[in-house]
Each structure stands twice: as C-alpha cells, then as structure tokens.
Design goal:
heterotrimer, A mainly alpha, B alpha+beta, C alpha/beta, A: mainly alpha, 11 helices, C: alpha/beta, seven-stranded mixed sheet, six-stranded mixed barrel, 29 helices, about 30% helix, globular, binds ligand MGD, binds iron/sulfur cluster, binds molybdenum atom
C-alpha cells in the first residue's frame, strides 16, 4: 500500500526528542526525590543534575522542528503558529501545546536550581529544587504519554489508534531519557576522589539496572501491542501487517527497534548487572560499554518513532 | 512577512457569536410564519448530498467543475471519482465512486483541530475551514477517515470540499451538482422532509462510507460499490481501483 | 476587499434569511435552488459576470455560460436555457479555461528562424505575416493557379465554415480544400447518403424503449455528447430502458449498458446481417417494418410491391445465419437471436452506431446494414428511433456575388480506383498523393483546427512530407497551440481560442427541435491573437478581393438579423444576451419522408420526371447543359442531378421521401443501392471479410483505438485539469492474451505493426476481448506543452503554469503504428483494423 506522507521527519524528531527530554526530567526528578534531594553520598544527585540539564533542550529543539512541518510556515506565515495559544480545546495537540510549554518552563527552572549557588536563589535553592522535582515527575510522565496520545487519538489511523501505543512511548521515553543521562555521564564524567568514584559506580549501576528493567517492560508492551493487533480483525490487523514479517517496515522494526534498540543493550547491561545483583560482586561497566549501550537505546528510540509514524500513514481503514 | 491574522481567532469567535445571533433571528421569523410547515423551517437547514450511482457515468465533470470553481492546485482534490473495475471476462463491470468531504455530523477532523480553525457550521451543518486561522498542522488531514482533506499549497492551510458554501448560501447548487451529466448528485436540506434529497433517502436504500468510523457522514450513496481490494483479493477475484489523483491508491 | 472570514459571516447571514424566505414555499425548498446561470467568487463572494457562449472542446459544441471575474475567465458552466444540453456540460468544457490560459499557447505571429522543424522562431507582426501570405496567394491567383493554395481544416463548423470556406475560399477560387472527415466517421456518412440521403442520425433516447449499440461510446465520446449522454442516462435510470452494447472493450458506455457483448474487431457487419436474417426469417418485420418498406427500395424494381421486397430481403439475408455470424464474430448464435428478437419486438427501439462499427474495411457497408436493420424493424425517423438530424438553419451574408469556378488539385479523394464513393474525401491519403505528385502539389499548404502529423495514421510518413520543402514549399499553421504540426510550419498564425471568438452555431438537437445558438468572446483575446475569420477578411483585402464583410462579429450579427425566428426574437442583441433561441411553438420533427410534394413544385420550370428511378428533379440545378441532355442521361447519371431532387413517386403519390445529399440516389430509403451495384458492389448489404484479418497468424492481435471521457483528440492534453486525470494510456490486453506472452500488469511491452513499433506498458484487464489490444488516442504527445508532453513550447505565452504538475509519463501515441489505409467504399480511415504483434519489452 502506498500513500503520500502527511507528517515527515520533523514530527518524528519531535516525538523522539520530546520523549528524551521528558524521560530525562522524570529520571532526574525521581532520582533526586529518592535520594531525599540531598547532595550526600548515595543520593545520586549527580544523575539528577545531568538529567536536569539535559531535559529542556531536546524538547525545545523538538518543538522548533515541529514548526517546520506547519503548512502556514511553509508559505511564509512565520508566526501563524501563535494561533495555538489563542485557544485551548480537547485536541491532543492543543493540550500538548500547553503541556509542553509548561514543561519547558518548569524544566528550565528545575535545571536552574542545579546551577552551583545560582544567583537570586540563596537558601531557597534546595527547597525549590525539591518542590520542582515533585512537579517534574508527573509532568515528565504526562509529556511522555502525550506523545503517544497525539497519534493514538484517530480511528482513521488504525496502526496508531491503540492505548498501548501511549504506554509504549512512555516507557521508551524514560528509557531514552535514562540512556541520554548515561551517555553524557560516560562522556563528561571525570574521576575525582575515591568516594566520588564509589558514588558514581552506584549511580551507574542504578541507571543501568533501571534501564534493563525499562527495556524489559518495553519488550512486554511491544508483545502486547502485536498480540492485541493479531487477535483483532479488520483495520488494526491489516495495519499491523506492515511491521510483521513480510511487511514493508518489518526489517526496520525488528532489526532496528527490537534488536539494536532493545535486545542488544539489554543483554549487554544484564551481563554487567547480574554479578552485582545476585552475588554483590560489585558493578563495573567500562565507559565505552555505557556509550555503546546508551547510543543503541537512543537509536532504537528514534527508530521506534520513525517506524510508528510512517506505518500509521501508509496504512488505513479497510473497506470503503 | 509576518502573519496578519494571529489575532483573527478572536474576531472569529465574535463572528461565530454574531452568526449565532443572525441565525436565531432567522429562526424567530420563520417560526412566526403561519402554516404547519413553519415548524419545519424553524429547524435550521442541515445540508447533505446524495449520489445516485445508478446514474453516474464516471465522467469527472464533477471533479473538474470543482477544480475550476476553486482553482484547486494540481496534486490535490476536493472532489474526485474512483473507478472500480471488477469481475472476470466477460462478466466484468466498472462502477464509479465520486468522493468528497462527507460533512460528518461527528467530524473527527474538527475534534482534533488545536486552533478551532475548522468547525461544523451550526447554521447549516457545513464543515468549513478558516484558512486565516489554520496553522497547517495537518492533524485534521490525518484524522479524516476519508482522505477528504489536503494541505493547500497556495494557502498553507488545510482545505477540502465546503459544499460550495459561497454558492449554496446564495441559493445556487454546488458546482459539481450543477454540471453532473448523469444528474446523479442531489444536494439539499436533510432537515426538510419535503426536499428531494430527503425524499430520495426515504424511498431508497442508501449507504455511507466507512460508517464504522462513527463520523456519521452526510454524503449518502445509492447503489454504491463498497468493494475493497483486501476482500476481493482474498476471494481471488480481479479488482482494480483507480482514484485518478496523485494519491493513486485509495486510503 | 472582503476577506474570507467576514465572507463566511456574510454567507451565514444569507443562509439564515434564506431559511425564513423558504418558510413560504417549503415544498420547493430544493426546487427553489437556482439551476445555474449565476456564479460567485469563492474568495470575495462577489457575483461573477455571466456571458452566454458555446463550447468547442469537442465537436458537440454545447451552449455554455462563462463567468468572468475582474477580466479573467474564472468558470464555465452549462446553459440552463439550452434545450440540447438542459444546462449541463462535461469535464472537458469545465476545463476550457485551461485552453485560454495555456502557458504554452502562442500569442504572436511566428516565423521560422532555423531549418523547418528545428524549433527556432522569430516573432513577426501581423502586417509582415499577412503581407507575405497574401503576396503568395495573390501571385498564385493571378497566375491562374488558385488551386495551388491548399487549405486543410479539421473541425470547421457553422459560421466559421461559411465565412472561411464558402465566402473566403470561394471568392479566392481554390477547390483544393481538404477536411478531416475520412479520419473521423466519413464511412458512416457515405452509407447514410446511400440509404437515406442526408448524413447524421439523431438518437431519440427520450422516447425509446430499447437501445441497441454497435461501436458507439456515447457516454464518453460521441459528436453530440452531453446532449445525448444525459438523455441516455435518463432513459436507463428513470425508464429502465434496456441497452445492449457491442464493443471490443468495456467502455463506460458498455459498463452502463444492461448488457455488454464483446465482439471480435471489425465483425459487427456479420452480426448485423445475422440480425437482419433473424428479423426477416422470423417475420419480425411485420407491422412497423413492413409499413416502412413502402418507402424503401429493396429490389432492382422501383415499383416492387412490399411482398416482393420482403421476399427479396428474406432471400438475400437467408445466407447470413446467426450460426455463421458466430463463427465470424465470436458472438453466440443464441445471443444474436435473442437480441435481434428483443430489438425487433420492443417498439420503438433505437439502433445506434459509431466509429467502432465504421472505422474499418467495409465500415460503410456495416453502417448500410445497420440502416437496413433499423428500416426493416420500422425504427427510422420515428419517435424513439433513429431519426434524421434536425439543426438550426441560419441565413448568412454570402460575400461577393460573382465567385470564380473553383479549380482543384485532384489530391483530395485518394489514388485512382482506391475509393469508389469518397463523398467526404480521403484526407488520410492526401500526404501520400502530395508525395506521389502525379496529381500536382500545392505551393501553399495551410491548415486550420487540424493536426496533420498527429491525427492521421503513420505519423512518420506525415512528418516526412510536412518537413520536405521540395514537396511543400510554403506551409502555414493556423493554431493557438504549438503542436506536432505547427512546430513544423514555416509560419504560425495564432488563432483566437473558442472562448475568444464569434460564431453562430447549429449542432443537431437531440429532441428534433432546432436550436439556434451563439458563441461570443468571454474575454478579450490574449496577446495579438486574431480569429482566423477576421484574418481571412484581412487577407482578402490585401489581395484586392474584398469580401464586403467587415468582421467575423459583423458576419455573425448580420446572420442573426437575417435568420427567420432569431430576427423576430430580437436578433443579435437577443442572442448576445441569451445565447440560445428555439421556436417555442416548434413540434419535434419525425416522419419527414412521408410528406407529400405539392403539385406546383412538380410544375416548376426545369422539373422533369425520371422513369428509371421515379424521381422528379430539376435539371437546372444539375450540371446538365440542356433538358435533352438531362433526359437522355437520366437522373441517375446526370452530374450533380441530386441537387435538383424534388420528390419520389411511390404508387400514385409523390413524396418528399429521403432527399439525396451527395449522390444521385432515388428518394427511396435505399436498402438496395443501384449506385453500389454500378460501382461493382453487392446492391444489398453483404459481408466481406477484412483481408488482413483473414491473413492473420494466430500469434497476432488486432489493435483498436478509442477515446476517453476527459480528453479530446490531440487538442486537450495541455488542459492541466484533464491531463491530471488522464495523461497515460497503457495498452489494454485480456489476461488470457497477456498470459500467452507472459505479460503481467504494468509490464513494458512492444507493439509492432507493418508500419512501425511502439513501446508502452500493459494494462492487463478482463475488460477487453481476447485477441485485441486497445490503445487510446490522445496521449503520447512530443510537443503541445508541459502538461501534454513535459515540454514547454519554445514560443509559449508566458502565462504562469502550475508548478504542481506531478505526472511525468505522457503515454504512447498509437498513430505511429497505424497505417493510413482507407475503406475501399468510403475512404474512411481504418483506425480499428491494424494487425499487430505484442511482446514483452526486454528491460535493460
Ligand atoms: N471525450 C471525447 N469526446 C469526443 C471526442 C473526443 O476526442 N473525446 N471526439 C469527438 C469526435 S470528432 C467523434 S468522431 C466522436 C467519436 O465517438 P465514438 O465513435 O463513440 O468514440 P470512439 O472512441 O472513437 O469509438 C467508439 C468505440 O468503438 C469501440 N470499438 C473499436 N473497435 C470496435 C469494433 O470492431 N466493433 C465495435 N462494436 N466497437 C469497436 C471502441 O472500443 C470505442 O469504445 O466523439 C466525439 N466526442
Ligand atoms: N488513433 C486514433 N486517431 C484518431 C482518432 C481515434 O479515435 N484514434 N479519432 C479521429 C477523429 S474522430 C477525428 S475527428 C480526428 C481529429 O483530429 P484533428 O482534426 O486533428 O482535431 P484535433 O486533434 O481536435 O485538433 C487539431 C489541432 O487543432 C488545433 N486547435 C485547437 N483549438 C484550435 C482553435 O481554436 N483554432 C485553431 N485554428 N486550431 C485549434 C490544435 O493545435 C490541435 O492540435 O482524429 C482522428 N484520429
Ligand atoms: S458528474 Fe455526475 S455522472 Fe459524472 S462522474 Fe460526477 S457524479 Fe458521476
Ligand atoms: S469527511 Fe473528513 S473532513 Fe469531511 S467532515 Fe468528515 S471527517 Fe471531516
Ligand atoms: S491543519 Fe488547520 S484545520 Fe487542520 S487541524 Fe491543523 S489547524 Fe486545524
Ligand atoms: S460541493 Fe463544491 S466544493 Fe464540494 S465537491 Fe462539489 S464542487 Fe467541490
Ligand atoms: S460535449 Fe463537447 S462541446 Fe459539449 S461540453 Fe463537452 S466538450 Fe464541450
Ligand atoms: Mo471525429
């Protein structure tokens, strides 16, 4: 089945980047809260910092990319998108617009609270950080879910029209969010004092373990996604066939999303996590492994958005 | 160039109120008119179209009339005619399926629009788009189960059949109806039981497209061929569906 | 300026008030909608200026209304007051705007700058252009060789024909005037001239109960398309009229028919003869048929009784049994019997036929058989039957009184003995005759509304002749467009399109009541283009032979003031305002033949009686020198005697009957044709197989061509809205036939004929009979503009095109491989006879 694409790369990027940002914020905030928001040992405040700094940018870039997809922009009405702010209604895109705007503001503020003794904050810096963290967790998750709902809201697009998609996108968002933190830590982290080293190792473990868990969930959800489709008849079943063996997008989905994006990183991570997990042998994953794993996860996350966005548009309702 | 219309939604809200008023006034007067019929006119018109495929010869006069009426750019269509060729020699037939916006009673295109640039007019049920408000996000294009919408490359806004609003509000027939060689297209008020379209719908078996989408279309067909490649291929029967537009495959 | 938003508001207001107005007469809620005649701008809501005129995209020439928005033609619609179209127009008419604003259109006179056909042009002024042309024409005329000016037209009708042909060319004195009828449907006309005299048959669908169709695609094409098609739909849908269509492929007409009967190409004659056999052998002629036979000639005896006629017909058709026809046509004998019975016993029934039946070897004979089948079932010129055409009869200024006797080159009617009755010439052989040269060659060759290279068979041959300066020293194309022929001309005179010019029109009325209608400019002509009618007047001036007509508009105006009925209605001004006129009192015209001739008409000077034929005729109107000569030679053998026809003696009475129009036939409806007999053919319709088909090897196929509903000939392919819908013409081929050559849908294939090969791709479909390959006309341009060929005209108008053009394939033109070959009877080009081999193309 051939169909002209209505939404292209900008939307794919947007969905991916918004997910990464949302994921990073969620991870950062939850880690911070888990560690009691303190800077003391085992509080993983370093992860929280990375997450906080990494969260706003991708979302802003994603939204920017979206503007290039607008027909009005293409014909030179540069600022027509402002109409998005002239109203709020039940359109997922309208809700999303406000949600993401809010996200950007909160995540920026949150990031600011990590700036070493940031101006104007004084002794408010930590309490504010914690307060914002409390807001950030639900906000991050909501944003992550929203990317799925945007697509899921249309019966006309059977491939997208499933609640599981939102769940899948949320998990993928958080895992890519974690991955991006892992990646930047691996790239920028410099060894200092031994106790700092220890804390880092623990954080590293925490991240990797979380990631394994998330990937596990993701695989389950994908399984559900496919099963559910297989067991129905008509539109959804037909639509799903493009990613099932023989479908045009099957290679990209199975090799790209599932193998590179999920299985390979999961296996590598397990290889390093198991010893600590079972025998407390102490966790030690080399820097390059962190890099390979996180990059693989990010690629997978991107390809997931790519496959889904295309698949939804080249398939449609059966019958007329 | 900056966008001159980014305050327009406010004007338009005012305008929507305005029309509501006008329409109400209209109704008032109508109700005032004696004769039992007045009751019916009190109902605002709700426009629909009926395409009687026993009369359609697939001539495309409708498609081209529509292109001309609105100078619709190449590559996109408000109106098109699909050919369905089906069967095995010598028992093969070709049937025709003219397509346009269904002006649904539950228009999914409208429910996904983030800017309220598209809406179903209270005064006559026509689903319209205001190109001065539309940002061209194409959400509605995705959401329409009938592929009836497109992005107009000239305006950068979503576009589609508007039932020739500029004609029907002046008492004319839509352009495609006026020229229909088979006189297969009937346009009229579904709320008026006396209108030709209402009578035809009452006296003939009619169908709509993709009813399972829950959109409640207001374009009805008599004797439509609903066959679909998936099902026909399943039965190993020859079928060829042509849309005669850039988007060659029906979707 | 009203912007869209407050327009929506404005619209709403009207809607609301509209609602209240409706309160009064609610039953008419729908009926109350205006059926046309008005249009508004979707952008501004302003009303567009409505100008009545006439379409010309195809020869049907339907009435239209053009809507003009600030000087630009914005929309075309049907004319609600037309009794022909009843307000409708087809897709091609709707796209007429594309003709005027064609970005590749020629707006200035052009002269070739490089070698002929090289594509180098220089813009010249009208003075330069016309001085040159007039100079050459005047010289020929002064040297006593006006015939060396050949004028070749395609579609030239009504006032254009009268002004250009009768007045201008008549005054100039050349008879070397070619047309295109032999590549059109000339064979049909010859057959009608032999049987009922004047050509053109109208199909009375409004009153018929049954339609039997041989090779007409009237729901997509036909020379009176919109007027006829919408009536046919009405008959089929409202009155459940049964229709049976014989066609080699499932045309849209066939698919809309109650029954499609696939038939082996070129064998309709056999089927029709077999139906005549069924009718006669089963005495189905009884009743209406029998009664009509009184007006028919069915034996050599002009005074034969009806019984003798019946006997003769029974005897003749006995040989053509349905079983025999089945062997020839592949149509089952039982089917033939069934349909023959249905047709003969359902009254009235309408027998229709077009190019599918006649564009063949012996196509004229097929039409003669078809006329016969209609006659013996009493379905001729009757309500619901096959009627003699009725159209407007305009009076017009005749120009200078004393016109010279036209001289002509004998190149119009094909090679000696090639065609016996070329009553509409043999245009498909003209280039061959010119190449041959034995009958002389024109020194100035000018064509108008015609595409010699593209529209005839064997494009290669045509191109060679038109390019050769030794064969044609000076060539002039009169056309708005840069097509495959004008691109080879020495000079191009840019004509006004039909939307920019004046005409009165007269196309046939489907309801047997003549309609008078007008074509007027909807906008002022673009660039420097000029209606060729005005150009002729100008040329005549420059040659010092003034026509006494100051302009085409004046010609049309005077015609309106001269023509009875139109004059009383208000003449030119009325026609300009209303576009159409018909006599509200007029009754539909049927049974015209049964009218008795008044005694005084027989007593007129020069009227003589011809014993042999029973015809009263006026010898003065013939070429006979004296009454003696006339009587000696007799009606049948006096040159142009038919022009003097007055009436036919039948029994004791003299009837108007079926007046001849092209040949000296009697007034009878001639089933039995003495003329055919004298030409050495069977006098009664008889079968003759197509030689090439007899000699076919079994791996060979027959190529047929056809027209589609959204394209006209070679002329509409640069209409973007039409070519967007139809720009590619894959070859239709039956799955069985394709499988035998392991061709799959979409495969590149090669189609070879005796004159060449072409590459295209296959459309494997059960919608065509096995053994046939069908390639539509229209596509495969290599010039004509961006939408037609992907090639911009070197000298185009510069109107902005639509950058949204998305198609890059332009199809394949079948005429490269169809030879120029005439039907031996009429000269009809045999479009649908070509034997070909089809094979899968080796993709490299
Ligand atoms: N849309 C459109 N309309 C037109 C024109 C146009 O170019 N385009 N041209 C106008 C002109 S000038 C003319 S002359 C008319 C022509 O009008 P038509 O003659 O009705 O149309 P054609 O397509 O030329 O041929 C009619 C049919 O003959 C079929 N056919 C081919 N071979 C055979 C055969 O052996 N037997 C039988 N029974 N059928 C056969 C073809 O499949 C085709 O469907 O149309 C006029 N109207
Ligand atoms: N294979 C195949 N060949 C066919 C046919 C077929 O069915 N199959 N059909 C045949 C039939 S029925 C016919 S009638 C002929 C028709 O063939 P033609 O007589 O050549 O008619 P067109 O192709 O319509 O137009 C010829 C040219 O006239 C020019 N023209 C267009 N508008 C105007 C105008 O307003 N003024 C002037 N001066 N010129 C204009 C354009 O350049 C156009 O290319 O083709 C025949 N050829
Ligand atoms: S104009 Fe009428 S008859 Fe022609 S295709 Fe459209 S609906 Fe069918
Ligand atoms: S057909 Fe599509 S565009 Fe038209 S109203 Fe229904 S959903 Fe909206
Ligand atoms: S494209 Fe325009 S009309 Fe459609 S949803 Fe977006 S803003 Fe609304
Ligand atoms: S109603 Fe108007 S806009 Fe809609 S398809 Fe017909 S012509 Fe086009
Ligand atoms: S049938 Fe021919 S003349 Fe009539 S509207 Fe169509 S193109 Fe024009
Ligand atoms: Mo023709």
């Amino acid at each position: 089945m051939t169909a002209e694409l209505t939404w292209g790369m900008p939307v794919i990027l947007y969905l991916f980047l918004a997910g990464v940002g949302a994921g990073a914020l969620t991870a950062s905030a939850s880690v911070l809260l888990r560690g009691g928001g303190g800077g003391f040992g085992g509080s993983h405040v370093e992860i929280a910092r990375y997450g906080a700094f990494l969260a706003p940018l991708p979302v802003m870039v994603g939204c920017l990319a979206l503007i290039f997809e607008l027909g009005s922009f293409e014909v030179g009405n540069w600022f027509r998108w402002i109409n998005l702010y002239m109203t709020i209604n039940l359109s997922p895109m309208s809700i999303g617009t406000w949600l993401l705007s809010f996200f950007i503001m909160v995540s920026m503020a949150y990031a600011y609270t990590f700036v070493p003794n940031a101006p104007f904050l004084g002794e408010w810096q930590r309490p504010l950080r914690v307060m914002l963290a409390w807001v950030s967790v639900p906000l991050g998750i909501a944003t992550a879910i929203y990317t799925g709902i945007l697509l899921g809201a249309m019966p006309a697009r059977p491939f997208w029209n499933s609640p599981i998609l939102a769940l899948l996108f949320m998990l993928s968002s958080i895992s890519t969010g974690v991955a991006v933190i892992l990646l930047f830590r691996a790239l920028l982290h410099r060894t200092s004092t031994p106790e700092a080293e220890q804390a880092a190792k623990e954080s590293d473990y925490l991240l990797t373990a979380t990631d394994v868990m998330l990937i596990g969930f993701e695989l389950m959800v994908i399984f559900l996604f496919l099963m559910y489709a297989q067991l129905t008849i008509g539109n959804v079943k037909e639509a799903m066939s493009v990613i099932l063996p023989g479908g045009d997008l099957a290679p990209l989905f199975w090799l790209g999303v599932v193998l590179i994006g999920l299985l390979i990183p999961a296996l590598i991570e397990l290889y390093y996590v198991i010893p600590e997990l079972l025998y407390h042998r102490g966790f030690a994953s080399p820097r390059y492994v962190d890099i390979v794993v996180s990059v693989a996860v990010l690629i997978g996350g991107f390809l997931l958005r790519y496959v889904v966005v295309i698949a939804g548009q080249v398939t449609g309702p059966v019958g007329i | 160039m900056t966008d001159p219309n980014n305050s327009s939604s406010i004007d338009r809200r005012a305008f929507l109120k305005g029309t509501a008023a006008v329409a109400a006034a209209g109704v008032g007067v109508a109700a005032g008119a004696e004769s039992t019929r007045a009751a019916v006119t009190a109902l605002k018109p709700h426009y629909g179209m009926l395409i009687d495929l026993r009369r359609c010869i697939g001539c495309h006069a409708c498609s081209v009339a529509c292109k001309a009426e609105f100078d619709v750019p190449l590559g996109v269509n408000r109106s098109w005619v699909e050919y369905i060729e089906k069967g095995d020699y010598p028992n093969v037939r070709r049937s025709f399926l003219p397509r346009l916006c269904n002006h649904c009673s539950k228009p999914q295109c409208v429910s996904v629009c983030p800017t309220n640039a598209t809406w179903k007019r209270k005064e006559d049920g026509i689903v319209v788009i205001d190109p001065d408000i539309c940002i061209g996000c194409k959400y509605c294009i995705q959401a329409c189960p009938y592929d009836a919408r497109f992005l107009n490359p000239k305006t950068g806004a979503a576009d589609k059949c508007d039932f020739c609003l500029h004609r029907v509000t002046k008492g004319l027939e839509p352009s495609c109806v006026q020229t229909c060689i088979g006189r297969a297209r009937i346009f009229g008020d579904l709320h008026d039981p006396e209108s030709e379209i209402s009578r035809m719908i009452a006296n003939n078996p009619v169908t709509v497209l993709r009813p399972e989408m829950g959109t409640q279309p207001n374009v009805f067909y008599i004797a439509a061929d609903h066959s679909d490649p998936h099902t026909s291929h399943a039965h190993g029967e020859y079928i060829r569906i042509e849309t005669h537009r850039r988007q060659a495959e029906r979707r | 300026m009203l912007n869209r938003r407050n327009f929506l508001l404005l619209g709403a207001a009207v809607a609301a008030t509209g609602g209240t107005v409706g309160a009064g007469a609610l039953t008419e809620a729908k009926e109350a909608r205006i059926k046309g005649g008005k249009d508004f701008s979707p952008r501004t809501g302003k009303e567009r200026r409505a100008v009545p005129s006439a379409c010309w995209q195809c020869v049907s020439r339907c009435s239209i209304i053009g809507y003009v928005e600030d000087g630009r033609l914005a929309k075309i619609e049907g004319q609600p007051n037309s009794i022909r179209t009843e307000g409708l127009v087809c897709a091609k008419a709707q796209a007429g705007i594309n003709q005027v604003y064609d970005p590749d259109r020629i707006l200035y006179p052009m002269q070739r700058a490089g070698k002929r056909g090289e594509g180098k042009w220089k813009r010249i002024t009208w003075d330069e252009a016309l001085d040159e042309v007039a100079g050459r024409l005047k010289k020929l005329r002064d040297d006593g060789h006006p015939e060396k000016f050949m004028f070749h037209y395609g579609r030239m009708k009504a006032s254009s024909s009268k002004l250009i042909k009768s007045v201008f060319l008549g005054t100039y004195g050349t008879g070397t005037v070619g047309n295109h009828t032999s590549i059109c449907e000339g064979g049909k006309w010859t057959a009608q001239e032999l049987t009922w005299g004047k050509h053109y048959d109208n199909w009375d669908f409004d009153n018929t109960k049954y339609v039997l169709n041989f090779g007409s695609n009237c729901l997509e094409a036909h020379t009176n398309h919109t007027s006829v098609a919408h009536r046919l739909v009405r008959a089929l849908a409202d009155r459940r009229v049964k229709m049976v269509t014989f066609d080699v492929r499932l045309s849209n007409t066939a698919t809309r028919s109650t029954e499609w009967v696939p038939i082996r190409p070129g064998t309709d004659l056999a089927v029709v003869l077999a139906m005549c056999n069924v009718v006669m052998s089963e005495d189905l002629h009884r009743g209406a048929g029998e009664a009509f036979l009184e007006f028919c000639k069915a034996t050599s005896e002009r005074e034969a009784t009806t019984d003798e006629k019946v006997a003769a017909l029974k005897a003749h058709f006995a040989q053509y049994t349905p079983e025999w026809a089945e062997g020839v046509s592949g149509v089952g004998a039982a089917t033939i019997r069934r349909i023959a019975r249905e047709f003969a016993t359902t009254r009235p029934a309408c027998l229709i036929s077009y190019r599918g039946a006649v564009a063949h070897y012996y196509g004229a004979e097929t039409e003669r058989a078809i006329q016969t089948l209609a006659a013996i079932t009493g379905n001729v010129d009757n309500p619901g039957g096959r009627c003699k055409a009725v159209g407007a009869k305009w009076k017009y200024p005749k120009g200078p009184k004393d016109k010279p006797k036209a001289k002509k080159l004998k190149i119009l009617d094909g090679f000696k003995g090639e065609v016996v009755l070329p009553t509409h010439h043999v245009s498909n052989q003209i280039f061959r005759m010119i190449k041959d040269g034995s009958a002389g060659r024109p020194e100035v060759y000018m064509w108008y509304c015609y595409q010699p290279v593209y529209s005839n068979g064997d494009c290669k041959e045509n191109e060679a002749v038109l390019k050769d300066e030794k064969l044609l020293p000076f060539t002039v194309a009169v056309s708005p467009f840069y097509d495959e022929s004008s691109s080879l001309a020495d000079m191009i005179l840019p004509d006004a399109t039909y939307l920019e010019r004046w005409d009165w029109e007269d196309m046939v009325s489907p309801n047997q009541v003549p309609e008078y209608y007008l074509r007027q400019p909807l906008i002022k002509p673009l660039g420097e283009v000029r209606d060729f009618g005005d150009v002729c007047i100008d040329l005549a001036e420059r040659m010092g032979m003034p026509l006494g007509i100051e302009s085409k508009e004046a010609f049309v105006r005077e015609s309106c003031e001269k023509t009875p009925g139109v004059k009383e209605a208000g003449g030119f001004e009325y026609m300009k305002a209303n576009g159409v006129w018909h006599d509200p009192e007029a009754k539909p015209k049927y049974f015209s033949y049964a009218k008795k001739v008044k005694a005084e008409d027989l007593a007129k000077d020069g009227v003589v009686f011809d014993e042999a034929t029973g015809v009263y005729w006026n010898w003065h109107k013939s070429k006979a020198k004296s009454e003696e000569e006339a009587l000696a030679k007799g009606y049948a053998h006096s040159k142009k005697a038919y022009k003097g026809y007055v009436g036919q003696m039948i029994g004791a009475a003299v009837y108007k009957c079926f007046p001849p129009d092209a040949v000296n036939k009697s007034g009878y409806f001639e089933i039995y044709s003495t003329i055919m007999e004298e030409k050495g053919f069977a006098p009664l319709p008889s079968y003759k197989p197509i030689p090439e088909h007899e000699a076919m090897k079994e791996d060979e196929l027959i190529l047929t061509t056809y027209k589609v509903n959204v394209q006209v000939h070679s002329r509409t392919q640069n209409c973007k809205w039409l070519s967007e819908i139809y720009h590619d013409n894959p070859a239709w081929i039956n799955p069985e036939t394709a499988a035998a050559r392991d061709i799959e849908d979409g495969d590149a294939i090669i189609v070879r004929s005796a004159v060449g090969k072409l590459e295209t791709h296959a459309r494997v479909t059960p919608a065509i009979a096995p053994g046939v390959v069908a390639i539509s006309f229209h596509c495969g341009h290599w010039e004509y503009g961006r939408y037609a060929s992907g090639k911009k005209a070197v000298n185009g108008s510069g109107e902005v095109g639509d950058d949204g053009q998305w198609w890059t394939n332009f199809g394949a033109h079948p005429n490269w491989i169809i030879p120029n070959s005439p039907d031996p009877i009429s000269g009809q080009q045999r479009w649908m006879d070509t034997v070909v081999q089809v094979s899968k193309a080796l993709v490299v």
